[in-house]
Amino acid sequence: MSTRGLFDDMGLDGVHELGPRACVLRGFARPVAGDLLKAINEVARISAFRHLVTPGGYTMSVAMTNCGALGWTSDRRGYRYSAIDPYTGSPWPAMPDSFKRLAHDAAAAAGFEAFEPDACLINRYAPGAKLSLHQDKDERDLGAPIVSVSLGMPAVFLFGGLRRDDPTAKVPLFHGDVAVWGAEDRLRYHGVMPLKDDPHPDLGSYRINLTFRKAG
After folding, report:
1. For helices 97-109 and 33-46, what crossing angle results, to 10°?
2. CB half-sphere exposure, 91, CA atoms < 13 A
3. What is the pLDDT of residues 101-114, one digit of tens each?
4. 118-151 burial by CB neighbour count: b if 16+ within 10 A, else e?
5. Residue 27: Cβ-neighbour burial (10 angstroms; 0-12, 13-18, 19+)
6. CATH number for the domain including 148?
7. Under 8 Å between Cβ of 207 and 151
8. 82, exposed or middle or buried, with CB in 10 Å at 0-12, 13-18, 19+?
9. Could you tell me the sign of the dihedral formed by the alpha carbons of 67, 37, 4, 125, in that order?
10. pTM given for the model
11. In terms of residue numbers, what domain contains 53?
12. DSSP state letter for 144
């Protein structure tokens, strides 16, 4: 099936199960999307989007920033969380209340009632940007779920198994969708296919992804 076929055939409401403890909450963030976008702009005013370099010297196609007590960063020295934005020398912007409420409510809707994130990675995709298959394992608390919010242009989320070479499901994500995975699904490999240019009324040719984690 083509990528366009995936988008045409997928419903826009309800819950899409990805695994025993993994799902997509269709449209869950749509009612608060306007508040989220305003908050993202304020965070980016303080800690601007940037293209990080991986330990292998590769410049990531996705631009990113962070908010919360901890922020994820990368350079030739490795991947890590830090309380300080290395670009500004100051703490990351505080996590907006609208972010905290959404992350808590989405996690609870997926069966993770006690989730309280201390880090939010904000990824900005332009057409052609992608995220290679990876595990989220830099966090100290692997018992907490990942909550991932999609805003703007649609994307195809790749959700695999516990090994990089396991088969992956192609899951379309739309503006306002929230993916949640934890427990036995917490370390499954995942990524994003190269983004198609399908402009969104609010974000134009961009997709924003908020990824909430309990890192400390």
Report:
1. 130
2. 8
3. 999 999 999 999 99
4. bbbbbbbbeeebbbebeebeebeeeebbbbbbbb
5. middle
6. 2.60.120.590
7. yes
8. middle
9. negative
10. 0.93
11. 3-213
12. S
Tokens of 113: 């009632």
- Within 17-166, where are the H helices? 33-46, 97-109
By CB neighbour count within 10 A (0-12 exposed, 13-18 middle, 19+ buried), where does 191 fall? middle
Residue located via tokens 């608060």: 32
Tens-place pLDDT, residues 25-68:
999 999 999 999 999 999 999 999 999 999 999 999 999 999 99
Find all residues with CB under 8 Å of 120, minimum gap 6, and list them. Answer: 66, 67, 68, 95, 99, 103, 210, 211, 212, 213
How many residues appear in the chain?
216
Q: In the chain, how many domains are there? A: 1
